[in-house]
Amino acid sequence: MKRATRTLVDLVRFTLAARRFRLLSGSSRSKALPGLRTAWGNLGFTADVSYLLAVLDYAEGQRGHFVECGSGLTTVLLALIAPDKVWSLEHLEEWQRRVQTRLWLAGTEANVLLAPLRSYGPFQWYQIPAALPRELRFVVCDGPPGTTPGGRYGLLPLLGDRLPKGTVILLDDAGRPDEQLVLKRWEREAGWRYTIKDSGTATFAVVTV
Length: 209
Description:
Elements: H1 2-22, H2 27-40, H3 49-59, E1 65-69, H4 73-81, E2 86-90, H5 93-106, E3 111-114, E4 117-119, E5 124-126, E6 136-141, H6 155-159, E7 168-172, H7 177-190, E8 193-198, E9 203-208
Parallel strand pairs: 1-2, 1-6, 2-3, 6-7
Antiparallel strand pairs: 4-5, 7-9, 8-9
């Protein structure tokens, strides 16, 4: 009973925070973001505020579709500012349902697609859903999990042809050795340039196609 009550309270808290956030703009959103992050929960696995702010900054004014490698709070953030543009690849069905529920509570929507991890020979990555648009203009790359063979490398061979010149990719966890190797490989194989951003509490990369 106590657990059910706590779950309900958490959902109400998130709903209020998300719907309040939707009404804000500019610097007011930045100030409200820590509260929304706390209301989201799962803090040990949720992106740092500095990364979330970068997601908002780069998404604002972008034309075309967005794609996420891994769903979460960034899905809600993107859907709050551009509900018709967001496509998220999620390999866990339970987490897909959780994110869809919170999108509904926030009063917005996004395409959260179930995309199981599969082997592509030397690496694993998401199975690409047929519904995914042929052109993607902004990428939030926070998956698959770091234990996946090949890590986040699969974005290049599997979706690289859908990313036109000038597309921005935000790669989270760029301070980890595996992500550093992926960045160098992307640059070597495709000429994708990148800049490392270190906020002191999080490290991510801004990659330009």
